């Protein structure tokens, strides 16, 4: 799959899925600008990947829910890479609360981390891709945005929002050569779910049709397909589901 020489901006790159996508893109010949708010873990990721491919990995730590920070992110990526061919929005956050116990602040935090951040990054990157006449935007949503889950009304609303947003943007951006798609993983073995209740985690993987959760590397292939040419050239507004069979739309 051809992404040789493509310039990719990846948010949430210090996390399990973001890092796996970054590593696969790098092995496939891309140049990377990596972003996460966890500066220490991001440094580790940039250091490890840059050791494999010196001169092809850069990045900076910032909070992608902050409008000014997102503008700084896109300017820095543009300066470092000389353009942005691929945007992957992999940052995200989760918590678990019954709706009657959920303060508005928690609702807003989860909507901000999972939906506002995607809007801000896409809005800032799109003018660059339009000027280039080409680009790929890959949002990371979730199977919970498709099927729902008790105690995750906020997260489900945000991720369903990401899917709807990605379809609308796909239609808006297609005339400019910019292809927008989403990946909706099922359970993935990262530290993302570490604070969820044991009753939520116990038995979840075993109940999947495949009987197991995914490794982050098993999600990265979908992100490679959507960035690649010619393999990804006719995907627009799709929601790819590497989800161990949890959702079969
Ligand atoms: N792990 C799963 O089971 C699963 C399932 C479906 C979807 N997802 C989605 O996949 C994406 C990646 O998840 P993951 O499993 O790699 O989780 P992760 O916790 O390993 O990584 C998420 C990363 O996002 C970063 N981040 C969070 N908020 C940020 C902000 N405001 N600014 C900058 N960085 C921020 C975190 O520091 C972290 O490094 C998320 O959007 C998540 O919702 C995960």
Automatic annotation (TrEMBL):
Cited SUPFAM superfamilies: NAD(P)-binding Rossmann-fold domains
GO terms for biological process, alphabetical: monocarboxylic acid metabolic process
GO molecular function annotations of the record: oxidoreductase activity
Stretches that traverse the bilayer: none
PROSITE patterns recorded: ADH_SHORT
InterPro entries (alphabetical): KR_dom, NAD(P)-bd_dom_sf, Sc_DH/Rdtase_CS, SDR, SDR_fam
Domain Ketoreductase: 6-192
Alphabetically ordered keywords of this record: Oxidoreductase
One Pfam match: adh_short
Family: Belongs to the short-chain dehydrogenases/reductases (SDR) family.
Name of the protein in question: SDR family NAD(P)-dependent oxidoreductase
Organism: Psychromarinibacter sediminicola
């Amino acid at each position: 799959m051809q992404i040789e020489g493509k310039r990719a901006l990846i948010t949430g790159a210090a996390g399990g899925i973001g890092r796996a996508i970054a590593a696969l893109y790098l092995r496939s010949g891309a140049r990377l600008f990596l972003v996460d708010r966890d500066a220490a873990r991001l440094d580790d990721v940039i250091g490890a990947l840059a050791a494999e491919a010196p001169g092809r990995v850069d990045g900076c730590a910032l909070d992608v829910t902050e409008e000014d920070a997102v503008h700084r992110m896109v300017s820095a990526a543009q300066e470092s890479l000389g353009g942005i061919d691929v945007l992957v929005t992999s940052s995200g956050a989760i918590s678990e609360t019954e709706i009657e116990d959920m303060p508005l602040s928690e609702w807003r935090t989860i909507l901000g981390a999972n939906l506002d951040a995607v809007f801000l990054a896409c809005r800032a990157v799109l003018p660059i891709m339009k000027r280039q006449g080409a680009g790929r935007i890959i949002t990371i949503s979730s199977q919970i945005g498709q099927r729902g889950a008790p105690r995750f009304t906020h997260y489900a609303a945000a991720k369903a929002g990401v899917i709807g947003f990605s379809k609308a943007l796909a239609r808006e951006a297609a005339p400019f050569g910019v292809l927008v798609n989403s990946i909706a993983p099922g359970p993935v073995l990262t530290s993302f779910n570490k604070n969820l209740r044991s009753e939520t985690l116990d038995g979840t993987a075993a109940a999947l049709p495949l009987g197991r959760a995914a490794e982050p590397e098993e999600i990265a292939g979908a992100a490679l397909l959507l960035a690649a040419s010619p393999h990804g050239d006719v995907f627009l507004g799709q929601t790819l589901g590497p989800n161990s069979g949890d959702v079969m739309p």
